[in-house]
Write a structure and sequence with these properties.
The protein is α/β, with parallel strands linked by helices. It is built from 23 helices and 11 strands. It has a 9-stranded mixed sheet with strand order 4-3-5-2-6-1-7-8-9, sandwiched between helices. Helix 15 crosses helix 16. The longest helix has 67 residues.
Length: 730
């Protein structure tokens, strides 16, 4: 029993907490019902309420049951308050006023002052509760009797009765046999009892003695129909319809006339009532919980009416914010991908073995020809500038997109121009025994500051294309041209080595700065939204707590609990892509010298055009795709709620509806599909895919050294571009 009491107490607390979330007016009907049912849940007494319209004899019936004129009786409506009759060792009355004053008197005379209607048939407005204590054995079992004001008289009285019925475990509805079940009584039966889960109801017909015998039979049949149509939840074997002539019963009790009391129907009714109470009283929960269920259902619907709009509002806000964040994250990842790729390409280019392979021969020749500065500007600087820009442009993109810290330019300086100190000129200047060593004529000195003949240039090419490490025994026999060429080669190697080490160090330092540029901050949400989020959390917690407490007492709800809201942290946070581990270029090893000598380019290759490799074209195309994707995301950022398709071109979404096309335009479109190898009406995504595939196949850069194919590729690219433009704008 103690465990059940604790469960009911927790349920009552949960009902009150939920009602507080609804901010109900204290005078509202739902608020009053909640307070009433919560107080009744933890009330250990079994309450029986007598209910019916005024002048139906409610107080008379209760006085007959108590055997005394305890309650006010008159021919006009008198009961102006809900009078609770409890057990007491003597008859006394206790009245609580709204201001907290307690009035306690022996007997019941004080009821005439506080518990009856005034001259204007108004209830006393300062009375909070009225209690009468009687030494009756039925009350001593823990039963309380509740005498309610008559209904169908004043709205104020009806509201009080409706409220108090929730606190009754058993309702005795008194009927007037002379005007059986009026429209008002039927409405009260439906609205005040049935719809609120109050089904432990007994009908008692009064004034049957005032009817003729034939009328009594007719009324009895009608009463039986009313009782049978109302499915009262009483213990099996007990009727929900009784006849009691209340005034005759009271007179018989006051006179001690047992036979008259029996003939009035009072004895049979009291016997049935005591047996019904004896069965229902030990399990009061089964009586009270249906009323709780009805009230809880109202609370749940009211809470849902507040929760759902707020949840929709917050979800809409979160969807928009998440859409923006998703776009920014995707953009940051794309930009970082392009940045990391470009850094990797520059790092790979700066690796000393690559520099020596690609540039050592040309640089040594330029040095020998006194043309190093021009070579540095036109060749090395040109390539470096292109690679540097490829790195920095991604940080420019990031700044434009995220407006975070502006990036600095990547500047890799060149070392000082290499210097060569010439050896002494040999006495025999006619030695032309080595391949490519041609004597310089004209009597011009062997100074790098002046013209140098083809002998040194040829020797550079020769030395870089043969394995001189296997020729140690011939070093003494090398020509002067070869000796000078070796000095040029060595000087350029030192130059490129310094350039490589310094460039890699600067690039590594520069790479660390991306985190301040390729990033964005999660902005704090508006205080209004934060407050709404907290309000939603409170409402959902209250709703779920009420569901849990209802389940504990076996009340099954039609509602499902709300899922727990994810924890939200409204603090400044930054997002920056996580770097992937990039393989660093290997350091120069002892075999570099051998490699550079075996793979050096012939000096004649300086004037030839070099065809780009397919992977270089693929890299260019990848950059184009990344730029296009970032441009699309920028457009989405400006209108994150737009419903454009995943692959739909941004400019198309803002176009006016298509106008009817001419036959010429339709022919162009058909031809464009044919050029791209597509079926008519292919999607824009299919158009893009076909265009990309064909561009990678026919890019003119792939055919630089094939003039015939180059011209064909240029014509093909013209057609592809034209077709793509037509189909992307149709």
């Amino acid at each position: 029993m103690q465990q059940q009491y604790e469960s009911y107490k927790d349920l009552a607390d949960s009902l009150k907490s939920a009602s507080a979330l609804l901010n109900l007016e204290c005078k509202s009907q739902l608020y009053q019902d909640i307070i009433t049912i919560c107080n009744h849940l933890v009330n250990p007494s079994f309450r029986i309420a007598v209910f019916g319209p005024f002048n139906h004899g409610k107080s008379t019936l209760l006085n007959a049951m108590l055997g005394n004129r305890t309650l006010p009786i008159d021919l006009i409506p008198t009961t102006g308050a809900a009078i609770t009759v409890k057990y007491g060792s003597d008859v006394r009355t206790r009245i609580m006023l709204l201001n907290g004053t307690e009035i306690s008197r022996s007997g019941t005379e004080v009821l005439q002052q506080f518990a009856i209607l005034d001259g204007n048939r108004q209830m006393q407005k300062d009375v909070a509760s009225v209690e009468v204590f009687c030494p009756h054995p039925f009350l001593e079992t823990g039963v309380e009797l509740l005498d309610l004001p008559g209904t169908n008289d004043r709205d104020e009285q009806d509201n009080l009765v409706r409220e108090q019925l929730l606190s009754a475990d058993l309702v005795i509805q008194l009927l007037d046999a002379r005007k059986l079940m009026t429209l008002g009584e039927r409405e009260n039966l439906r609205d005040w009892l049935l719809d609120r889960g109050i089904k432990t109801v007994i009908f008692v017909a009064n004034f049957m003695n005032l009817l003729e015998p034939d009328e009594q039979k007719q009324v009895q049949n009608r009463l039986r129909f009313v009782a049978e149509s109302f499915r009262a939840e009483l213990p099996p074997g007990f009727s929900n319809l009784y006849r009691v002539d209340a005034l005759l019963a009271l007179r018989a009790r006051l006179k001690g006339d047992v036979a008259a009391a029996n003939s009035s129907g009072l004895a049979a009714f009291e016997t049935a009532l005591q047996n019904i109470v004896g069965i229902l009283q030990p399990n009061r929960g089964s009586v009270r919980l249906p009323r709780v269920e009805a009230i809880a259902s109202q609370i749940q619907f009211s809470l849902k009416a507040k929760i759902d709009p707020i949840a929709i509002e917050i979800k809409s806000f979160d969807d928009k914010q998440n859409s923006k964040i998703e776009i920014k994250q995707k953009a940051a990842n794309l930009i970082y991908k392009g940045f990391a790729t470009s850094v990797g390409e520059l790092r790979d280019w700066l690796a000393l073995p690559k520099l020596l392979t690609k540039y050592q021969a040309g640089a040594a020749v330029a040095l020998a020809e006194n043309n190093f500065k021009a070579w540095q500007t036109n060749t090395l600087k040109k390539d470096l500038t292109q690679l540097q820009f490829a790195v920095v442009k991604w940080l420019y993109q990031a700044y434009e997109f995220f407006q975070e810290e502006r990036s600095q330019d990547l500047l890799i300086p060149f070392p000082s121009e290499p210097q060569v100190i010439l050896p002494s000129k040999p006495s025999n200047t006619d030695d032309l025994s080595e391949p490519g060593s041609i004597a310089v004529g004209g009597g011009i000195g062997w100074l790098l500051g002046g013209p140098v003949g083809a002998g040194v240039v040829g020797s550079i090419s020769y030395l870089l294309n043969k394995n001189i490490q296997t020729q140690d025994e011939q070093l003494a026999k090398e020509s002067y041209h070869q000796e000078v060429a070796k000095l040029c080669i060595s000087a350029v190697e030192d130059y490129l080595s310094g350039f490589s080490s310094q460039g890699l160090a600067i690039l590594a330092e520069y790479e660390q700065k991306y985190e301040k540029v390729i990033c964005f901050e999660f902005s704090q949400e508006l205080l209004k939204i934060t407050n709404r989020r907290e309000n939603l959390q409170q409402l959902q917690n209250g709703f779920n707590q009420l569901l849990r407490e209802l389940e504990k007492v076996k009340i099954i709800s039609n509602h499902q609990p709300y899922k727990e809201l994810p924890k939200y942290t409204n603090t400044n946070r930054k997002y920056s892509p996580q770097p992937k581990r990039v393989k660093t270029s290997p350091q120069k090893d002892p075999g570099v010298k051998q490699q550079q000598e075996n793979t050096a380019k012939n000096s004649e290759t300086r004037v030839k055009s070099v065809s780009p490799r397919p992977e270089e074209v693929e890299a260019k195309f990848r950059d184009w795709e990344l730029n296009e994707e970032i441009a699309r995301m920028k457009a989405e950022m400006r209108s994150p709620g737009s419903q454009t398709g995943k692959h739909q071109n941004v400019t198309q979404s803002n176009k006016a509806p298509n106008q009817p096309k001419t036959q010429t335009e339709n022919d162009k479109i058909t031809r464009a599909y044919s050029i791209l190898g597509l079926q008519a009406n292919a999607s824009l995504a299919e158009v893009k895919l076909a265009y990309r595939t064909l561009v990678k196949k026919w890019h003119p850069d792939l055919f630089v050294n094939q003039p015939q194919l180059l011209k064909q590729a240029q014509e093909k690219m013209h057609l592809l571009n034209e077709a793509y433009t037509i189909l992307s704008e149709k």
